[in-house]
Amino acid sequence: MISNNLISGAWFLDGVRSLQERITKTQKQISSGYRIQDAADSPKDTANVIGLGTSISSTQQYLATLGRVGAEASAVDTALSTGITLIERARQLAVRAASSVTSAADRQNIAIEVVNLQQQIVGIANTTVEGRFVFGGDQDDAQPYQYDASSARGADRLTTQTTSRIIEDPHGLPVFAASSASAIFDAEDASGAPAATNIFAGLNSLVTALNSNDPTAVSGALSQLRAGSDWLNQKQAGYGASARRIADETTLANSFLTGLRSRLSELRDTDIVQAATDLSLQSTAQSAAFSAQASVPRKSLFDYIG
After folding, report:
1. Helices 43-98 and 104-125, interaxial angle, to 10°?
2. Distance (Å, rounded) from C-alpha 205 to C-alpha 226?
3. What is the pLDDT of residues 76-104, one digit of tens each?
4. C-beta pairs of 243-250 under 8 Å, 24+ apart in sequence
5. How does pLDDT run across 219-274, given as a tens digit for each residue?
6. Separation between Cα atoms, residue 41 and residue 35, nearest integer Å
7. CA–CA distance, 306 with 299 (Å, rounded to integer)
8. What is the DSSP code (8-state) at residue 269?
9. What global pTM score does this model have?
10. Closest residue by Cα to residue 145 from 92, 203, 94
11. Does the residue 170 lie in any domain?
12. DSSP state of 174
């Protein structure tokens, strides 16, 4: 009988200890909001949780990158739109200056306005977003151009402007490719001479022709500006397509992120309603166990000798 009591007591203590561990675990699940507290809780689910966490982190980084290049593409689109407007104004002035009825004095006044347009175009080539020169190529921490009236193109290139930055989607497909100020505003042919689409050279040719009172040269500069305007429109269209691709990628990435978070929640997060029910049952079982143990007869050896 004494041996049975000892066995019963040990069994009771083991049961209470196990029940208390379950209660403590359930309480932690409720307070932390996480069903899985450590790898021992569910080795398979823990591995999946780690994998999902890695995927969520990389998707968030991708979204942050899309946000940055999206802002860049938007700023570039606005800058090029302004540039197109300025070139159109220069073309209008060139048409007027090419007229035989325009006086030398009028051409001098037009030249002053075109110089102002030149300076604004150079300013556009130096557009910044979050402190970065968006047309700076790989050297986006340095100003790519400065206005220089004595230069053959009206602007000096200050950096090499090589461009290797390409943003790819998770499958390795290009989403956004940066361009440089030299490629957009200062295009060159294979020999390094200004290409027909060179906007800086076209504007400077117009200024030179106006100051020389040369209507024929003005007409030649007008042709250059027409080619430059077409080129600028093409570049803007390219950035517009990139902006749309970025918007589409952002939508897809956000949807993917939502799915990842949902799956992570299913694996890791506590079902609060179920956990509260479990805790109530566990607490009730613990109370019942203590009550049952208290009702067990307590007799010593002397109780049986008397």
Report:
1. 170
2. 13
3. 999 999 999 999 999 999 999 999 999 99
4. 243/70, 243/73, 243/74, 243/77, 245/175, 245/176, 246/66, 246/69, 246/70, 246/73, 246/175, 246/176, 247/70, 249/66, 249/169, 249/175, 250/63, 250/66, 250/67, 250/70
5. 999 999 999 999 999 999 999 999 999 999 999 999 999 999 999 888 876 555 56
6. 8
7. 12
8. B
9. 0.76
10. 203
11. yes
12. E
> Residue 165 has what pLDDT?
92
β-bridge partners, 177: 166
Q: Taken in order 98, 102, 104, 105, is the CA torsion positive or negative?
A: negative
Helices (H) and strands (E) in the chain, counts: 8, 6
**118 compared with 46, residue with greater pLDDT:** 118
Indicate whether 284 belongs to any domain.
Answer: no
Domain CATH for 184: 1.20.1330.10
Q: Count of domains in the chain? A: 1
249 close to 3: Cβ distance less than 8 angstroms: no
Helix (H, G, I), strand (E, B) or coil at 136: strand
DSSP reduced 3-state for 298? coil
Nearest to 154 by CA among 197, 108, 116, 188: 116
71: in domain: yes
Distance, in Å, from the CA atom of 179 to the CA atom of 237, rounded to the nearest integer, reads 13
DSSP 8-class letter at 296: S
Task: List the one residue out of 23, 8, 63 whose CA is nearest residue 261.
Answer: 63
Is pLDDT above 70 for 106?
yes
Residues 127 and 133 sit within 8 Å (Cβ to Cβ)? yes
**Domain range holding 111?**
53-263
Residue 288 lies in a domain: no
pLDDT digits (tens, 9 = 90+) for 242-257: 999 999 999 999 999 9
